[in-house]
Amino acid sequence: MADERGFFRLDGRVAIVTGGGQSVGEGIARRLTAAGARVCIFDINAEAARRVASELNGHAVAGDVSVPADVERCVRETEQQLGPVDIVVNNAGIVGKNDYIWNVTKEDMEKVLAVNLIGPFLFCRAVIPRMLERGYGRIVNVASIAGKEGNPRMIPYSSSKAALIGMTKALAKEVAGRGDITINAISPAVIQTKILEQVSQETIDYMVSRIPLGRTCKIEEVAALVHYLVSEEASFCTGQCYDISGGRATY
Ligand SMILES: NC(=O)c1ccc[n+]([C@@H]2O[C@H](COP(=O)([O-])OP(=O)(O)OC[C@H]3O[C@@H](n4cnc5c(N)ncnc54)[C@H](O)[C@@H]3O)[C@@H](O)[C@H]2O)c1
Q1: Does residue 89 lie in a domain region?
Q2: In a domain, 4, yes or no
């Protein structure tokens, strides 16, 4: 809340950032820490999680967002090490198979849905009962413009992000009015990160060509939006998908 040091402070708040070991997740973790939060970095890459957590004086948990036991362990450890969880940013995600649908297998589809949809589902399921007990919580699900507009040759990814937006809207209504708990999604367009190594140049060119601002998004821009949404001040914003696509989204 606003205090003598300024607005959007997160002092005393505890956050989990999934996929916080690099790129967007790392940027979000840095921003939330700078605002006063204590952050648990959860990542399948143990070394990356440890590196970021030690720089931020946070806590690292290595695990896979699609494995229920890993998610429960993360929440338990965060509570023990840092305190009750106020904020969860479901950021971990993969692109998966980047090809025409006739080349996409059922396993390709399931793999992407497991990380991009089931992962956030598991984290929400684990923390929401505790947030309801305490009457406070902020959840941000990192979706994608692909989930709103649909990117060709990205069927698993686009489908998973559209489903994540749907889950966000439904869940926000389930908890609405039961304390100060908000659940939102964001839909970035292309951000220059390592995830693009999973995408063909043809698809990257397609995505960038559709951004009216004519450039890619910066990690810091995404982190700033997430920071606002997890602040106490954003208490009237819930069940939404916030666009951060340089004007690409048309609805
Ligand atoms: N970069 C973009 O252009 C872009 C655009 C829109 C949305 N997004 C979304 O932003 C989020 C972050 O993307 P990024 O560009 O930083 O990607 P990235 O690949 O650079 O980083 C993803 C992080 O998630 C971790 N991770 C992957 N699978 C995991 C799992 N199963 N369990 C735990 N951790 C796992 C990775 O180890 C990595 O640290 C993703 O959800 C992505 O879909 C990215």
Answers
A1: yes
A2: no
Residue 251 lies in a domain: no
228 is catalytic: no
Instruction: Read off φ and ψ for residue 8, nearest 5 degrees.
Output: 60, 30
Q: Write down the catalytic residue from 157, 206, 228, 242.
A: 157
State the CATH number of the domain containing residue 145. 3.40.50.720
pTM of the entire predicted model: 0.97
For the Cβ of 144 lying below 6 angstroms from any atom of ligand 1, the answer is yes
Tell me what the mean pLDDT of segment 37-50 comes to.
98
Evaluate whether residue 70 is within a structural domain: yes
Cα–Cα distances in Å, from 185 out to 49, 168, 225? 23, 6, 11
How confident is the model over 54-89, as pLDDT tens digits? Answer: 999 999 999 999 999 999 999 999 999 999 999 999
* Domain count across the chain: 1
The tokens describing 186, both together, are 């964001």
